[in-house]
Amino acid sequence: MSDPTVRRRRLGAELKRLREDAGLKLDDVQERTTLNVPKVSRIETARIGVKPADLDALLDLYGVDDVAKRAVLHSLAREGARRGWWQTYRDSISPAYADLISLEAEAKSFRSFQTTLIPGLLQTAAYARATIEAIGMTSTAESVNALVQVRQARQAVLTRPEPLELWAIIHEAALRPQIPGPHVMREQLQRLLDQTDLPHVSIQVLPLTASPHPGLAGPFSVIGFPETSDLDVALLESMTSTLYVEDPAEVALYGSAFERLRAAALPFDASADLIARTKDNIK
After folding, report:
1. Which of 97, 102, 154, 252 is such that its CA lies 20 to 30 A from the CA of 245?
2. What phi and psi values does residue 113 have, to the nearest 5 degrees?
3. How many angstroms separate the CA atoms of 102 and 86, rounded?
4. Going from the N-terminus, what domains does the chain have, and what CATH number goes with each?
5. What pLDDT is recorded for position 97?
């Protein structure tokens, strides 16, 4: 059996929370619906999906009357096993990366704080190739090519009819790496400047002179979804793993951290000026 997607895990976690908020045990659900304890448990732990009729039965039992909330949960159930364009690259990308792409495809907003890299949704192909090769170390040319293609394809969420709202806070250090070929970094910084013209893209730079801030703990992203914040997800990435934080209270902490970073970062115009000066100073 394949690993559950983030969507299925989000649905299972939310159904468990709703059951517990209703003061019901698994045995209570079995007594009051046609679903038995093992099945409900497997749904909550994302080991299996849930049929629309069964989902309605659970939501009725848990007293979920909000039409928008029910629609979101049905969407999660329906899309939990959906195959997207990224499945073409399943031999080149990890399940966690596939989860990220599927979440971006459904999300309304994406708030990203990066310390050493330009966010993937804003990367040029040349910059993406240079950083993928550096981080992958032992990656083959074929796998690097595939990952560059995936990173470029992901950016379609910024040009779709209802585009993703992207707010990126980038540490000044990420603007200054000595990537081979000065034209690569100049092109990348120009891409940032060009993207700021889009009404749904906001870019701020956190200066080297900033006082201590929550971002000292490392980069993170918060992915927001339509209708309800209960299903928002925080994302933490490292060289060898990707962690999705799904507990609403913990996600809210990352949201608060992002707000503090937003206040500490340079205003939009000053950020654009710094990016432009940095680009012009690349020799």
Report:
1. 154
2. -115, 125
3. 8
4. 6-79 (1.10.260.40), 88-280 (3.30.870)
5. 84
Q: What is the mean pLDDT of each run of 10 residues along the chain (283 residues)?
A: 64 91 94 94 88 94 91 80 69 81 87 95 95 84 91 94 96 90 93 95 96 92 78 82 85 96 97 96 88
Query: Which pLDDT does position 90 carry in this prediction?
Result: 74
In whole angstroms, how large is the CA radius of gyration of the chain?
Answer: 21
Contact call for residues 274 and 192 (beta carbons, < 8 A): no
- pLDDT single digits (tens) 67-92: 888 988 888 887 665 666 777 777 77
In angstroms, the CA 270 to CA 141 distance is 39
Q: What is the DSSP letter of 250?
A: H
Phi, psi dihedral angles at 20 (to 5 degrees)? -70, -40
Contact predicate 113/234, CB 8 Å = no
Alpha carbon distance 242, 8 (integer Å): 17
DSSP code of residue 108: S
Supply the pLDDT for residue 5.
67
Q: What is the DSSP string of 167-212?
A: EEEEEGGGG----SSHHHHHHHHHHHHHHTTSTTEEEEEE-TTPPS
Let me know how long the chain is. 283
For residue 159, what is the DSSP state? Answer: T
